[in-house]
């Protein structure tokens, strides 16, 4: 190695100076070349034996501490010490590698002798230094640099003298090197448990890692990059610092025990710069480690899982630690993998019975087994971080990401994100590793010149988790919560129920139940919650009967009143006899429940007699049907009109109420602020008949002369069949169909926000979201059931807030009922507050209902459906990860990445403005052709005509004076409300303030949206969203005039392009080039091709519509009723307490901290004490203990020498390995209970365990004077019988003596009872 270093330096010295990039290295090269030049006045010396002696003397002169070395160092290196640090580090790295390359251990004999040579005197012998002293050579590197050119000195260099040994440490024995006598152990921590109490000699034995399993180091065990820090790192690793102890044979040993204060172990951070040696890849690819030890860390007292079959049943037997499992699990996290190990617990009686052959299996269990986890309290059980599968596991953080399954948020999306996180984390670690290596290979550096060999490549990335692994882990986690979810679903009630069926979700069922189900039938309540759901093969009384009877029985057992209305989509009425629904719900019908047909389904039944939905009169016909059945309440409508007028009273006073409703009020405002009521069967019949007769004539034709109806006979037949349902769509008399959910403010006017109870639209929305609860295109039976129950339980919980005023039912999205119930009761008791005040525990009734596939399998096969086999449904060990070269097949079936063109996007007509539901419309909403238009339209049209002339003239860039004056005169004549610029569309208000670009820190979302809009406008000018008279009359008139006056379009210059070109001319000539008009403030916003295209399409649609005769019929917005409605009930601010029996959750008691672990004791020999001096008896004085200062010590009781002259048990400090203390303990006489015989042998030299001491004590004292006494010495006695009160009973603070059937309590002294039950009845009678 020294020869290679010499050759490398010589090659570096002959390099060109311009090839060296570092300034310090250039000076170093010049320094070496100057030292190699012979002095001019020196005479050549012959090569004799004395030359080596002089060289040796020159070397010693340059050793650290010598004056010559100091002078040379100061004269040569004082120029730039900081720059030379690079060279010092490089040399330090080289010498450390040279020392580590030595394969032979250091000899323990005498000082190493050099090769015999006549030129080297005997006085030149030196002992070989310990490698520990090499760390002190860094400060002496610079004087030694001058010796690099000498090959004879490369093999051995001067070492600083060995420091003297401490006086308290034992000196090295003959034949032992100083290295062997040097301590190497780190200081002890508070968790160490040494066992020696005397001055221990130093041990050469290896350090034992108590608890480390060698199989963990296999290829399937702990990753190789994590093994070093887990075993060696004293701060972050698994083990405590080294402890020195003496075993039962008197041999001094060293050990490191497992830490018992944590379960999570986090690796050291990767280095950020190169210091010392070349970095290795292991430091950059470490992972976390989790050690599951409920007994070793938490000290939980656990029972044998066998219960009554345990060999020690009936006794106070608990599980104990029995080593650690030889296999580890690799857990998939969000961005990587971590390793998990566990302890093994055992039952002593079961183990002994198995060894005797009395039982079949050994009583050992892994601590992560479900039988063990179920004994822990819920809080401790939740700290287990993963869901275990066949060979690996999934972290619960990833499992939680899979719970919310909505449109676009599928399991495949989460799986792809996890894969991306894994690879991104791996490449970032690899990037840091290669970045540090690149700093070592810069050309011209000393490291590259000396040669560094080949760098270690980074380890290969770990295998990515498969989608099946994620799904299976989620199913295992949710399967444990299915019973809780069922109880929550079966605790849902309501006063207005809706019943409907769907087929779409049934198509995803595969496996055992494929093809056996046809319908998914569900029942919901007025809050859109699901009361019950089943899968059936057909919709009939026979198949749906068990479900309906179960729901009725549940209401009865829970003391809930019968619902008032049941909305359905068919089967509402019958010509003779009761209908099918009335038969299914006969008990409720007898209590007054009515069955009603959903109005939405009734109206859409007319589609069978219509030609197409694209007909120009289709919307008018549907609006007329809705207005014939339902009418708006005039009082609520007038309040809404007042709120809209309050925005601009001066402008709105000339607009009639009809135009306000038609132009200023949106559909959402009418839906939530104005109640609707049914007009009655007779009025509905009259209005619908008029509509049909009107549209049969010319009013029902479009621009092509095509009629809306297929034929007059078809619409007449449909109308005849629909007439018998007119009574079924009417509201029950005297029942409020709305409730006040909250209060909304519009322009300073408070309006009630209504929630309707009518119809089954809520079930339609649930059925639309239902297929997204089942991930993928198909699913097997057991996963299908888990997905359904968990998804519907979360659906119900999310909609429970609607039952409280203001939507403040639930504060947080927590779906575990036992967890909320425990926290509510504990926080109420401890802090006087509740976590979720509107939480209601599930009901405790047992109605025997079946849900989902349970219902289907019971009807089809007659067997009970179970989830027991779901553990075995997961992937195999090799399928849990993606193998190299495996294709990504799971992502192809992801519904989130498939477009659906069947659902057109419907844009809203009007948006909202200042409040939650306030409109934000410009002042010029009125159509120019309305009865009372806003003033100034003719002036606005004249101004736009002048601008059109400017835009259609393309010969000049600037306007002349005449044109400028005409524009100014026309602009000044325009009304003020037409000069206001258009505000941006409020449809995207929720997006502003939450996007990534131009984000602003504002608490108020409205302010943040405005500021963000301004920021975006500076970078990207926003285009006009739509051109209509409702938003901006100026833009509407201007663009329409440009469209009508533009020349005929051609293929090279389409119509939209010509309009945009003319509009751009107007913008530049008015707002940019003219110095006067640019200051007039004419609002001409930017428009684009899409804006013009949408405008032209809308105008063409209106032309086609108005080209035919318009029907004179009622519409949805013009149907207003003057009938007074009673005030709608207000939802409660806090839910009332439940009037049904609730489930009483009994939490598992915590046993943490109750397990008494056996103290670590080791047998040892202690020195025989000398007889005490004959001194007067006096209290012993504690002598000081002289010890080496340490960071921490641990004290343990030590059993003394048992004799008449032995002292009591002493407590002595235990020092870390390598440190000793001199302890002088005076003998103190002790008091003995029994004086032993003179011939009795004393027990010398051995420390036994507690049980062994007790047994030997009983054997030595047969008289019973050493028997262990009970802990309680004075038990209280009964005043009646005089015996101890053990076995006595107490009831309501009254005592009862079972021996004589009497009581010592006040008022019962003289009574004699027959038995304890008689005593209880007497005490109860006293309280009454």
TrEMBL record:
<feature type="compositionally biased region" description="Polar residues">
    <location>
        <begin position="163"/>
        <end position="175"/>
    </location>
</feature>
<feature type="region of interest" description="Disordered">
    <location>
        <begin position="1116"/>
        <end position="1136"/>
    </location>
</feature>
<dbReference type="InterPro" id="IPR046616">
    <property type="entry name" value="DUF6729"/>
</dbReference>
<feature type="region of interest" description="Disordered">
    <location>
        <begin position="93"/>
        <end position="205"/>
    </location>
</feature>
<feature type="domain" description="DUF6729">
    <location>
        <begin position="261"/>
        <end position="474"/>
    </location>
</feature>
<feature type="region of interest" description="Disordered">
    <location>
        <begin position="37"/>
        <end position="78"/>
    </location>
</feature>
<feature type="compositionally biased region" description="Pro residues">
    <location>
        <begin position="1126"/>
        <end position="1136"/>
    </location>
</feature>
<feature type="compositionally biased region" description="Polar residues">
    <location>
        <begin position="188"/>
        <end position="205"/>
    </location>
</feature>
<dbReference type="Pfam" id="PF20499">
    <property type="entry name" value="DUF6729"/>
</dbReference>
<protein>
    <recommendedName>
        <fullName>DUF6729 domain-containing protein</fullName>
    </recommendedName>
</protein>
<feature type="compositionally biased region" description="Low complexity">
    <location>
        <begin position="66"/>
        <end position="78"/>
    </location>
</feature>
């Amino acid at each position: 190695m020294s020869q290679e270093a010499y050759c490398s330096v010589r090659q570096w010295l002959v390099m060109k100076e311009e090839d060296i990039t570092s300034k310090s290295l250039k000076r170093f090269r010049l320094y070496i070349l100057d030292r190699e030049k012979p002095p001019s006045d020196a005479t050549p010396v012959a090569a004799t034996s004395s030359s080596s002696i002089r060289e040796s003397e020159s070397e010693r002169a340059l050793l650290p501490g010598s004056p010559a070395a100091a002078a040379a160092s100061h004269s040569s290196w004082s120029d730039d010490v900081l720059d030379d640090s690079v060279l010092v580090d490089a040399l330090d790295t080289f010498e450390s590698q040279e020392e580590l390359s030595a394969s032979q251990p250091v000899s323990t004999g005498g000082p190493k002798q050099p090769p015999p040579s006549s030129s080297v005197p005997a006085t030149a012998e030196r002992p070989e230094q310990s490698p520990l002293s090499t760390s002190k050579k860094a400060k002496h590197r610079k004087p030694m640099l001058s010796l690099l050119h000498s090959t004879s000195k490369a093999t051995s260099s001067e070492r600083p003298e060995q420091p003297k040994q401490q006086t308290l440490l034992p000196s090295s024995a003959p034949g032992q090197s100083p290295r062997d006598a040097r301590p190497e152990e780190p200081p002890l921590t508070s968790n160490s448990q040494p066992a020696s109490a005397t001055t221990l000699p130093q041990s050469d034995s290896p350090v034992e890692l108590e608890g480390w399993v060698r199989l963990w180091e296999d290829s399937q065990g702990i990753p190789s990059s994590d093994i070093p820090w887990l075993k060696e790192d004293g701060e972050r690793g698994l083990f405590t610092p080294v402890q020195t102890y003496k075993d039962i044979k008197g041999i001094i040993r060293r050990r490191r025990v497992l830490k018992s204060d944590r379960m999570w172990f986090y690796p050291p951070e990767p280095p950020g710069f190169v210091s010392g040696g070349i970095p290795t890849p292991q430091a950059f690819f470490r992972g976390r480690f989790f050690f599951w030890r409920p007994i070793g860390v938490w000290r939980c007292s656990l029972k044998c899982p066998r219960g009554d079959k345990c060999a020690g049943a009936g006794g106070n037997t608990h599980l104990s630690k029995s080593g650690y499992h030889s296999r580890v699990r690799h857990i998939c996290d969000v961005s990587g993998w971590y390793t998990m190990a566990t302890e093994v617990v055992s039952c002593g009686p079961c183990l002994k019975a198995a060894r005797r052959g009395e039982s079949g299996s050994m009583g050992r269990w892994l601590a992560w087994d479900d039988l063990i986890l179920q004994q822990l309290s819920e809080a401790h059980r939740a700290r287990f971080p993963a869901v275990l599968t066949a060979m690996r596991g999934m972290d619960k953080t990833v499992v939680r990401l899979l719970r919310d399954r909505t449109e676009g948020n599928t399991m495949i999306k989460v799986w792809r994100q996890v894969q991306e996180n894994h690879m991104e984390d791996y490449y970032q670690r690899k990037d840091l590793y290669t970045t540090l290596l690149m700093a070592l290979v810069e050309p011209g550096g000393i490291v590259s010149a000396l040669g560094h060999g080949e760098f270690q490549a980074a380890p290969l990335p770990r295998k990515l988790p498969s989608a099946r692994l994620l799904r299976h882990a989620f199913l295992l986690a949710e399967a444990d919560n299915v019973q809780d979810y069922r109880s929550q679903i079966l605790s849902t009630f309501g006063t207005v129920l809706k019943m409907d069926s769907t087929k779409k979700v049934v198509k995803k069922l595969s496996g055992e139940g494929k093809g056996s189900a046809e319908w998914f039938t569900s029942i919901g309540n007025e809050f859109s919650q699901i009361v019950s759901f089943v899968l059936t093969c057909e919709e009939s009384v026979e198949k749906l009967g068990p479900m309906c009877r179960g729901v009725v029985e549940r209401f009865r057992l829970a003391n809930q009143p019968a619902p008032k209305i049941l909305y359905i989509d068919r089967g509402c009425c019958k010509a003779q006899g009761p209908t099918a629904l009335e038969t299914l719900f006969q008990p409720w019908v007898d209590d007054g429940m009515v069955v009603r047909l959903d109005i939405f389904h009734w109206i859409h039944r007319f589609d069978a007699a219509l030609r197409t939905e694209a007909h120009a009169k289709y919307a008018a016909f549907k609006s007329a049907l809705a207005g014939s059945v339902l009418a708006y309440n005039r009082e609520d409508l007038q309040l809404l009109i007042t709120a809209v007028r309050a925005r601009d009273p001066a402008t709105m006073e000339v607009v009639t109420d009809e135009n306000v409703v038609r132009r200023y009020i949106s559909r959402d405002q009418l839906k939530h602020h104005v109640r609707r009521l049914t007009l009655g069967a007779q009025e509905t019949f009259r209005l619908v008949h008029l509509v049909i007769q009107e549209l049969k004539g010319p009013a029902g034709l479009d621009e092509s002369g095509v009629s809306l109806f297929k034929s007059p006979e078809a619409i007449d037949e449909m109308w005849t069949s629909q007439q018998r349902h007119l009574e079924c769509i009417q509201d029950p008399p005297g029942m409020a169909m709305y409730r006040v959910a909250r209060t909304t403010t519009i322009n300073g006017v408070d309006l009630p926000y209504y929630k309707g109870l009518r119809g089954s639209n809520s079930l339609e929305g649930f059925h639309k979201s239902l297929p997204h609860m089942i991930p993928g295109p198909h699913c097997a039976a057991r996963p299908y059931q888990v997905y359904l129950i968990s998804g519907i339980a979360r659906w119900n919980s999310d909609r429970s807030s609607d039952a409280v005023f203001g939507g403040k039912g639930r504060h947080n999205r927590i779906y575990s009922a036992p967890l909320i119930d425990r926290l509510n009761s504990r926080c109420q008791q401890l802090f006087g507050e509740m976590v979720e005040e509107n939480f209601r525990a599930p009901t405790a009734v047992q109605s025997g209902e079946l849900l989902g596939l349970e219902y289907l399998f019971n009807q089809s096969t007659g067997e009970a459906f179970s989830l027991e086999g779901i553990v075995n449904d997961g992937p195999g060990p090799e399928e849990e990860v993606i193998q190299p070269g495996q294709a990504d097949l799971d992502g192809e079936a992801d519904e989130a990445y498939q477009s659906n063109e069947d659902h057109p996007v419907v844009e809203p007509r009007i948006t909202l403005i200042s409040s939650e539901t306030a409109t934000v419309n410009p002042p010029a909403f009125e159509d120019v052709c309305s009865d009372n238009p806003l003033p100034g339209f003719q002036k606005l049209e004249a101004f736009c005509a002048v601008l059109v002339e400017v835009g259609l003239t393309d010969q000049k860039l600037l306007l002349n004076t005449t044109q400028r004056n005409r524009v100014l005169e026309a602009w000044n004549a325009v009304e003020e409300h037409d000069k206001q610029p258009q505000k941006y569309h409020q449809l995207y208000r929720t997006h502003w303030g939450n996007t990534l670009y131009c984000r602003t820190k504002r608490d108020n979302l409205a302010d943040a949206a405005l500021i963000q809009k301004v920021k975006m406008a500076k970078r990207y000018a926003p285009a006009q969203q739509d051109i209509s008279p409702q938003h901006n009359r100026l833009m509407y008139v201007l663009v329409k005039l440009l469209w009508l006056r533009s020349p005929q379009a051609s293929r090279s210059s389409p119509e939209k392009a010509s309009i945009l070109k003319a509009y751009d001319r107007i913008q530049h000539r008015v707002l940019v080039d003219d110095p006067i008009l640019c200051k007039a403030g004419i609002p001409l916003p930017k428009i684009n091709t899409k804006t013009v295209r949408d405008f032209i399409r809308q105008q063409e649609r209106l032309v086609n519509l108005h080209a035919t005769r318009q029907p004179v019929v009622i519409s949805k917005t013009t149907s207003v009723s003057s009938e007074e409605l009673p005030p709608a009930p207000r939802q409660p601010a806090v839910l009332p307490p439940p009037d049904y029996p609730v489930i009483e959750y009994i939490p598992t008691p915590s046993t943490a901290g109750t397990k008494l672990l056996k103290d670590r004791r080791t047998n040892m020999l202690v020195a025989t004490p000398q007889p005490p001096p004959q001194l007067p008896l006096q209290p012993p004085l504690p002598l000081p203990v002289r010890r080496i200062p340490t960071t921490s010590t641990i004290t343990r009781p030590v059993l003394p020498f048992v004799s008449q002259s032995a002292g009591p048990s002493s407590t002595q400090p235990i020092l870390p390995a390598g440190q000793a203390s001199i302890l002088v303990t005076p003998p103190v006489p002790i008091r003995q209970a029994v004086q032993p015989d003179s011939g009795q042998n004393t027990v010398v030299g051995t420390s036994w365990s507690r049980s062994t001491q007790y047994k030997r004590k009983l054997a030595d004292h047969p008289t019973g004077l050493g028997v262990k006494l009970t802990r309680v010495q004075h038990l209280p006695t009964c005043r009646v019988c005089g015996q101890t009160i053990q076995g006595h009973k107490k009831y309501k603070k009254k005592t009862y003596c079972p021996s004589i059937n009497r009581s010592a309590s006040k008022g019962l002294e003289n009574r004699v009872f027959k038995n304890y039950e008689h005593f209880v009845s007497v005490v109860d009678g006293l309280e009454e």
